[in-house]
Amino acid sequence: MKKLFKCTVCGFIGEGESAPEKCPKCGAPAEKFEELSSEAAAKVYRSDKTNVIHMEVIALADKIIKLSLEGIEDDLDPNCVITFEKAIDEAWTMKQRCKAELAGHMKVGKW
Ligand SMILES: [Zn+2]
């Protein structure tokens, strides 16, 4: 497991033998980075796959919303419109549930 260094300015986490010279996100210098403990680093690595899955579910739910809007616009019959409206509601809930989970992960260092 490589060492992880967290930017104390923006939260970016870099991987390597030492802190990056400059934060790729906010440009802060190396001295603004702190090395994560092995426990904290293990949390970041352990949660990476699950976080990516949540983000993919969010992207798919977003696609359902966009397709459903197209379906509503197509307006074949009233039941289609109702079905697409329900799909939008359900996809929104799915998206927000995953976002809430990710926000929880961020608060406890699983990010
Ligand atoms: Zn930064």
From TrEMBL:
- Native species: Desulfitobacterium dichloroeliminans (strain LMG P-21439 / DCA1)
Q: What is the lineage of its organism?
A: Bacteria, Bacillati, Bacillota, Clostridia, Eubacteriales
A Pfam family that this protein carries is RUBY_RBDX
Which cofactors does this protein require? Fe(3+)
Q: Residues in domain Rubredoxin-like?
A: 2-36
Q: What is the superkingdom listed in this entry's lineage?
A: Bacteria
Residue ranges annotated as transmembrane are: none
> What is this protein's record name?
Rubredoxin-like domain-containing protein
One GO MF term attached to the UniProt entry: iron ion binding
